[in-house]
Specification:
Elements: H1 3-24, E1 27-28, E2 31-40, E3 46-51, E4 58-59, H2 66-80, H3 100-112, H4 120-137, H5 139-152, E5 154-156, H6 157-167
Antiparallel strand pairs: 1-4, 2-3, 2-5
Helix pairs in contact: 1-2, 1-5, 2-3, 2-4, 5-6
Length: 168
């Protein structure tokens, strides 16, 4: 497998993690994609990312608990780690990976919940672990979405929901 193919596989696993977890929570989104979007960082170096939300998330059941939003943020990294024996914790290197924005969003949500700064890392790791275990139960859904993304690069919410229902 080339480096580019490995990168796309990792991105597909990451975005599929967000996507599958959103489906578990009845959260609607526009699409999930691994089409690279060029971003400029502070040092003007190109960075690449995929996206699950597209036009934002809409909760279909009307209510998602704040800890579930943190789990949804961490589900991308959990998706990347789906083949591991254990979820592991959020590591320093993860901050420089595709999980950077997810980590920032999770930390912001934890601040809103009033979690003390000294406990935030522990909470992030608990939410990562929870997301990983949830994805393990829906591993077939995650795998099918990964395969769909690698084949088509972008899947609509409707396509993702059809995959989800196939394995329900």
């Amino acid at each position: 497998m080339t480096r580019a193919e490995q990168f796309l596989l990792t991105m597909a696993k990451h975005e599929s993690g967000h996507c599958a977890f959103a489906l578990l929570l009845d959260v609607e989104f526009d699409a999930v994609t691994i089409v690279p979007h060029q971003l400029e960082n502070k040092n003007n170096l190109p960075a690449w990312m995929g996206t699950t939300a597209g036009g934002g998330l809409l909760n279909l059941n009307g209510y998602i608990r704040p800890n579930e939003w943190v789990q949804l943020n961490m589900a991308g990294l959990a998706g990347e780690r789906i083949n591991r024996q254990e979820p592991g914790g959020f590591e320093n290197g993860d901050i420089f990976s595709s999980a950077t924005n997810d980590w920032k969003s999770a930390m912001n949500e934890l601040r809103k919940l009033g979690i003390p700064k000294g406990q935030m890392d522990r909470e992030v790791n608990l939410m990562l672990s929870s997301a990983w275990y949830a994805l393990q139960r829906y591993r077939e859904v995650h795998t099918a979405i990964v395969e769909g993304l690698l084949a088509k690069e972008t899947l609509s919410f409707k396509e993702c929901m059809a995959i989800f229902k196939r394995y329900e």
